[in-house]
Write a structure and sequence with these properties.
Blueprint (H helix, E strand, L loop, with lengths): L1 H60 L18 E22 L2 E11 L2 E12 L2 E13 L2 E3 L9 E22 L3 E23 L2 E4 L3 E16 L3 E10 L8 E5 L2 E8 L2 E10 L1
Antiparallel strand pairs: 1-2, 1-3, 1-12, 1-13, 3-4, 4-6, 5-6, 6-7, 7-8, 7-9, 9-10, 10-13, 11-12
């Protein structure tokens, strides 16, 4: 009887152990299967990243830089060289004249305006789809003539003639809010450096024309504005520029038969509209 009970106990223990082992084996197989699926997913993600990097590298290396101005092209469509024209409205220009002679000294300051026009050319490079840099050089002309009332009781106004060649460089940061295949719209801020060579200086005093010497001044430029690109190639810019280097009384100076004459023009603020074609 005891032997029979012992045999039954051993049989139940063997059956229980077998069931426990089966459950443990199934759990282990399920765990290994999950780990394998996780490893496969990680490997798939790694392959996707590698393929993306290779595709971007291939795309960048496949940019066609052959032909005229091919060196200008880059990965993004808004990258390229450009040429265009810029017209502006310079308000609040001050023309200044100071005369110190044997009959005494007098000075006059007259507000005027100018419509400068520039030729622009340069290179634009985008480091991402919606932001980049614009580098340009410019060369242009502006006239700053005005009537100066030298003496309050003279009964006539004297004419001060002034014009200038403006040339320099500018660099602007571009950030685009709207980017599509046909339309790009954003804002830009920039800095620059300008030379102003004032030429054709003369003054009519009492009907007598006196030619004045030319002079050159330099100025830093700070700017802010907006831009719009149509079909990538046609670019329109509206920009406000402040020039810090032109000051009243800080211009040309010469001695005319014992009479000391000082003169200057101050085109410090200008609102410009520009069009450029990007190659």
């Amino acid at each position: 009887m005891k032997t029979r009970k012992l045999a039954l106990s051993l049989a139940f223990m063997a059956m229980f152990s077998s069931l426990t082992y089966a459950e443990t084996a199934d759990e282990e197989i399920a765990r290994l299967k999950k780990e394998n699926e996780l490893l496969e997913l990680q490997q798939k993600n790694a392959n996707l990243k590698n393929n993306k990097g290779k595709n971007e590298s291939v795309q960048s290396s496949n940019v066609d830089k052959s032909g005229f101005l091919g060196f200008c092209r880059g990965e993004y469509a808004n990258t390229g060289c450009f040429i265009g024209a810029e017209v502006g409205y310079a308000s609040g220009v001050k023309n200044y004249l100071f005369v110190d002679g044997v009959d005494g000294s007098y000075s006059s300051t007259q507000n005027t305006y100018a419509l400068p026009i520039n030729l622009i050319l340069g290179w634009q490079v985008y480091s991402a789809k919606n932001w980049g840099w614009n580098f340009k050089a410019f060369f242009g002309y502006a006239g700053y003539g005005s009537d100066l009332k030298i003496e309050e009781n003279s009964g006539y106004n004297d004419k001060f003639n002034s014009s200038a060649l403006h040339y320099g460089i500018e660099a602007s940061y571009l950030y685009d809010f709207i980017v599509s295949q046909q339309h790009t719209f954003g804002m830009n801020v920039g800095i620059g450096y300008e030379f102003g060579t004032f030429i054709g200086q003369s003054v009519d005093i009492g009907g007598v024309n006196v030619s004045l010497d030319s002079y050159t001044k330099t100025s830093f430029i700070s700017s802010i504005g907006v831009h719009y690109f149509l079909n990538v190639n046609h670019q329109f810019w509206l920009t406000y520029k402040y020039k810090s280097g032109y000051n009243v009384g800080d211009g040309g100076s010469m001695n005319i038969e014992g009479t000391q004459v000082k003169y200057s023009s101050t085109p410090n603020n200008v609102l410009t509209f520009a069009y450029a074609y990007k190659f």
